[in-house]
Structure formats: structure tokens, C-alpha cells
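[User] Once you have settled down, look closely at the record that follows, and write a paragraph about the fold.
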Amino acid sequence: MLSAKRRWWPVIRSLIAWRAIITLTLWMLGKVVDQPAYLAGCAASAALLIAVGETGDWVRRRCRARRPNNHPGPATPR
């Protein structure tokens, strides 16, 4: 059980960091273009962007794993 928690902490920290960075970027862009948004709205948008990105990455990895190896020669690990 303890090793499972240790495995998830880097993922959780990464998602929190990305969400904070994207939230602040969206908020600051709103200030720059003189269309300020609430920080909560920017946080919700950041969560949506991260969810879409993670889902796209998951689909890409899943498709790559299912794709047959079409090139000749020995298989090389990636």
C-alpha cells in the first residue's frame, strides 16, 4: 500500500503544478488583453485543458500500443 502511494505522489504533484501554471497564465493573459477573468474561472479552464490533454495522451499511447509493428528487422525497445 505504501509503495502505491509513493508511485502516485509525483503524478499528483505534476498535475497540481501544471494546473497552477496554466491557471496563472490564463489569468495573466486576461489582464494583458484587458478582459480580466475570475481566478476560479481560469482554474476551471485549466482543469478542462489538462483533462483534455491527459485524455489525448492516453488515447495516443493506447493506439501506439495496439498498432502492429510494420517495419522489417528486429524490434527495438523504445
Q: What stands out?
A: The radius of gyration is 19 Å. The mean pLDDT is 85. Residues 5 and 45 are 28 Å apart (CA to CA). The first helix runs from residue 2 to 32.
